[in-house]
Amino acid sequence: MHAQSSIRSTVFISLFTALTAVGAYLAVPVGPVPIVLQNFFVLLAGVLLGKKRGFAVVTTYLFLGAAGLPVFHSGTGGFGVISGPTGGYLLGYLPAVYVTGYIAEQGRSLGFTFTALLAGALVVYIIGIPWLKIVMKLTWIKAFSAGFIPFIIGDALKIAVAIPIIKWLRPPVDAFLQSENHGTS
Fold it and tell me: Where along the chain do its domains lie?
């Protein structure tokens, strides 16, 4: 990989890491797990950057947060956040961005994009809800009620908003990444 293309990847990874952190500050408290825009940017990273770069975004984001930087919901940071009620959702971003990126890499149609976004969102819940159940010592019904039900409408809206943004951003991002992959400027 050329130095210039490595710098380009680093810039995109840094940008989406920063956007994910900013999304954490936009929180609506609705119980032990707030509604935030972190997952919106995680899913966008998966679709626009692909599974590998998207995974790098989330890995960087989680590392920064675990190290104590205030990049998690409401300006929190530290390993205590990851081991707390929202930790499963945060750790769920890793497989979610990978799955989202993988599906998005299979096709560029609206159907692939929607499926990628929906699958990524569901992966976060598949990991987050059991974690919430264990950490908070909840029943499955209470964990589902606290960790899924309040977020359905918000996540549906995030997916609906993400689709036109992806449609708008995908061509220039694809062109940029394609030129990177071919080693051109």
Answer: 3-179
Give the N- to C-terminal CA distance of the chain in Å, as an integer.
12
Nearest to 147 by CA among 137, 133, 161: 133
CATH architecture of the domain with residue range 3-179: Orthogonal Bundle (1.10)
Closest CA to 89 of 135, 140, 138: 135
Q: What is the mean pLDDT of each run of 10 residues along the chain (185 residues)?
A: 73 96 86 84 98 98 98 94 96 98 96 98 98 98 96 93 97 81 49
Relative orientation angle of helices 140-147 and 110-136, to the nearest 10 degrees: 130
pTM to 2 decimal places:
0.91
